[in-house]
Amino acid sequence: MAKLSISMLEARRDARLKAFYRLEKKLKRHFPHTRLPLLLDGLYACKEVFNICRLNGWSFIVVFKEGSIPTLHAKAVRNRDLHPENSMRAKEDDSGFQNLSWANNIEYCGMRLHAMFCEDHVRAKDAELTTRWCWLTDIRPCADNIEELVNIRFSSA
User: Fold this and answer.
1) 8 A C-beta contact, residue 106 and residue 114
2) Model pLDDT, residue 50
3) Global pTM value
């Protein structure tokens, strides 16, 4: 059963990658000189997509799940843990808060990527719900921009 699941995931990733190649052609045709920022699902977390973005001058923020590129995720977590100064608390109010952190200059297939981490803490009546997020990006996060970068997903919906 596990083999079937892996094959299905690979098939989905392959289908999305083919769709991304088609999208790239359309974007280049309609917006040939525009530097686009792309917000992408985790199935696009691969070197082929990163290279396409780099070659076209497009920035990207892609959902980064622990299992998608395991060695890169481990590097990002190690880098983050070595630099506790790269963290902050944000959006703190009665409804909850966010713990934000980041890891810069993670080498992957000849590219320098950055990882952003967010723990959303939402207070409910009698409980606190915590949701963890992680993204890969080519935009260098820092204390001045991390809150805006990780909350793009809320403002763009």
Assistant:
1) yes
2) 95
3) 0.84
